[in-house]
Specification:
Blueprint lengths: L4 E13 H8 L6 H12 L4 H5 L3 E5 L5 E3 L2 E13 H8 L7 H14 L10 E7 L4 E6 L9
Antiparallel strand pairs: 1-4, 1-5, 2-4, 3-4, 5-6
Length: 148
């Protein structure tokens, strides 16, 4: 069976307290913007389901990385590329159904729950296309699972 690529675009906007990330990760506050951006960017390809499906995330666009009012603000966007059958198998889905939406939603969820982010005061807005319009979702600290 020929490989059928699923391509989804995922755009995220982050707002994370400098002190929150510094305290949780043991960083000097002056290093937080660079460390936070690098951590999220590097971690996306380590997301288990994306790795198991041999998918890839290609970053694009400008980060707009800045600190304002004690918070790091950044925009991170990716083109997600994965084989439809492989993603469906990893996620237990019918490959004829909403694979693109599941791909974008799952990756956004996992980004917000990265271990060095989930104990901070991070707020993330995600936007992605579903084939039936665009979804915009905001995740706040109370929306995530906490590690102990």
């Amino acid at each position: 069976m020929p490989r059928t690529a699923v391509i989804a675009r995922l755009e995220t906007w982050w707002s994370v307290g400098v002190d929150s990330f510094a305290d949780d990760g043991g960083y000097d506050p002056s290093a937080v913007p660079r460390e936070l951006c690098g951590y999220v960017t590097a971690s996306i390809t380590d997301i288990k389901a994306l790795d198991e499906a041999e998918g890839w995330a290609h970053g694009y666009g400008r980060t707009g990385l800045r600190v304002r009012d004690g918070r790091v603000h950044m925009a991170l966007a990716w083109r997600l590329d994965v084989d439809r059958q492989a993603w469906a198998a990893v996620r237990g889905l019918d490959p004829r159904r909403g694979v693109r939406r599941d791909l974008a939603e799952h990756i956004a969820f996992e980004l917000f729950h990265l271990s060095s982010v989930c104990e901070t005061d991070a707020v993330m807005t995600a936007r992605y296309a579903t084939g039936h319009g665009t979804v915009r979702r905001i995740w706040r600290p109370e929306d995530r699972r906490r590690t102990s």
